[in-house]
Amino acid sequence: SLRSYSHIWKVKMAAGNPIYKYLHSLKASEIGSSADITLVKDQQPLEEVVNLFAEKKITSAPCVSSDGAVLGYIDMLDIVTYIVSVSPDKWCLDHQQLQSLETAGRAISCVAAEEIKNASGRDPYVPVYETDPATECITHFANGVHRICIVDSSGTPKHSFSQSDMAKLLSEELKKSHSKAISAKSIKELGLGCWSTPVTCGEKDTVLKALEILSDKKISALAVVKENGTLSANFSATDLVGLYRKQLPDLLMPVNDYLTKYSEKATNPVTIRHDTSLLQAVQTMAEEKIHRVWVIDDDFKPVGVVSLTD
What we know:
Blueprint: H1 2-15, H2 18-24, E1 40-41, H3 46-56, E2 60-64, E3 70-75, H4 76-85, H5 95-100, E4 102-103, E5 106-107, H6 113-116, E6 127-129, H7 135-142, E7 147-151, E8 157-162, H8 163-174, H9 180-183, E9 200-202, H10 207-217, E10 221-225, E11 231-236, H11 255-262, E12 271-272, H12 278-288, E13 292-296, E14 302-307
Parallel strand pairs: 1-2, 6-7, 9-10, 12-13
Antiparallel strand pairs: 2-3, 4-5, 7-8, 10-11, 13-14
Helix pairs in contact: 8-12
């Protein structure tokens, strides 16, 4: 088929790409974070997982069985998705239900992590062996995966490799002379950030409403816009970092108020324009440690988005 031919053509082109060649020369063990990876036990209750994420300032972790086997990933979006999924009114939870974490007549604060993993369908567990080339990670990132678990020959998690780690690698490689043919091109020339209208929510929409949109659209971030359509903030699952159980009722706050309280950096969204070069876009993501930048027009209205998946 035309699609299959296109895929084969892209693979052949990638094989001759200097950046691809460089990454293919690296082993997965040579990339990513060397920090100890946080693990969640399969029988660990929801309340403990929420508090663990807040203490470690992380949004996700592998969920493992008693014998150390990885069962999948669990993240904050999974937790919130699960909380609302067992409510009779889905996204219409009241303050008391969120405060006690009791919905649909059951105390879900005691629900095991195993039941919650990948509830959102947005964070699958994707392992890559230490001996695999780094291009294995590129393939998974291109398919929308946000983080990869680097494992040893027995499948034991050793460290993680995120899209932010990849941005740093790409940024350094794009600066080199043999990459200038690619790095100097504008995102418009490369066809990035041009083909789809950004998904948005209003400043006055609740955080739960924003999460509902993320869940329905199967996306990872929203452009928060003012009434006149101009960009106000960026909202993603990352903005749930540090959310303790007692703070869950704040998911009923207007999204802009919530971000001001918990994630003020998100209220100053990082933007680019269609004439921004690929190098500038990737450098910006690497420096800001973000996964996407919003493309804006002259009126500061979002007209596109460029992500590391792109």
